Amino acid sequence: MTCLTGVRVLDLSRVFSGPWAAQMLADFGADVIKVERPGRGDDVRQQGLRARDAEGNETRETSSFLAMNRGKRSITVDIARPEGQALVRQLAAGSDIVIENFKAGDLARYGLDHFALRALNPRLVYCSISGFGQTGPYRHLPGYDPLFQSMSGLMSITGHADDEPGGGPMRVGYSVGDITAGFYAMAAILAALRHRDLVSGEGQHIDLALLDAQLASMSHVAMMYLVSGRQPPRLGNASPITCPWQSFECADGQLVVAVGNDPQFAAFCQVLGHPEWAADDRFATNPQRARNRQVLVPMLAEVLRRRPVAEWHQRFEAAGVPTGPINDFEQVFADPQVTHRQMRLTLPHPTAGSVPQVANPVKFSQTPVQYHRAPPLLGEHTVEVLRERLSLDDARIAQLRQDQVI
């Protein structure tokens, strides 16, 4: 048994945010059916690097699709056709959760919006993820992650200052807005599911905007502006409120230092060979260090550049000072802590032989995550699901295929 054994999810979403939420639900034990367009499927089946089979030949499976769709069953249905819409409505009638990330209002054209589906199934938890939400002046606009990074203020605080080399706003190196929205979506879905099961007996509609989610995740940085009225500075790898909290050049690379309190700073200075710095009135407390960073940081940098990263890291680790190297992914997946936590896994795959996966980080004590299914081939489970869920016979399925509904 897993946490969500018996929970049925109908995943109408594409690309990243919705599929990410649905994959987490699948990891936790839900039965997730992914509905895709016949012939083409989810857009991310055409994005990313191609997985290779055991002989080294490219397959049709892309890294982007493999990252978001573990544990699901894929069916192909043309929702632009009345017959396809009817199939989706029947599946929704027997589901607990629907996830979709079409533009606001798009699914109403097909009779697949939350009003239509919850009329068939009042217990349905229906989660709509869109760029700007179901209301407001931007509700009709499409959008992708770079827009939400820029419009939420994230890029205004990411990157080096304008007067530094390479200065200017910078995008975070992955689709942080999509993934963040996926996390909010899963939390909201589980909360609505609990309310249905323990309080109301009814489902509800969840309206989640990527712009809202990215802004909310700015948390303490956005609050700096709200309490002061001042734009937080863009400081590259440094923090505006904690010091030292940044990367430093060492003899053979960079080391990230994250000194979170005054005792750690005293230990840090001891390792550097300058215990007197911790008693200096300019640096004795974190607010003083942050205020005098332009004096302190060059002093630290001068010492740190004398030794290699590994030596400093070992010394600081022994002293209880948080530091770490800047790993590339080869180093990440070779790291003994990452290896111990089993954050990389491999799943058998029908065309690639096997595919690597980044594991779910949650470790349940009673209901561990079970990886029972690799990301599916396009339409791999269409016949299986139509037979199992809708009790369609072979003749009816053959007719739907002939009519290009599935």
From TrEMBL:
Q: Does the keyword Transferase apply?
A: yes
Stretches the record annotates as Disordered: 42-61
Q: Which GO terms describe its molecular function?
A: CoA-transferase activity
Q: Could you tell me the superkingdom of the organism this chain comes from? A: Bacteria
Q: Which UniProt keywords apply?
A: Transferase
Name the InterPro entries on file: CoA-transferase_III_domain (IPR050483), CoA-Trfase_fam_III (IPR003673), CoA-Trfase_III_dom3_sf (IPR044855), CoA-Trfase_III_dom_1_sf (IPR023606)
Tell me which Pfam families the record gives: CoA_transf_3
Q: Is-annotated flag, keyword Transferase?
A: yes
What is the protein name for this chain? CoA transferase
State the taxonomy lineage.
Bacteria, Pseudomonadati, Pseudomonadota, Betaproteobacteria, Burkholderiales
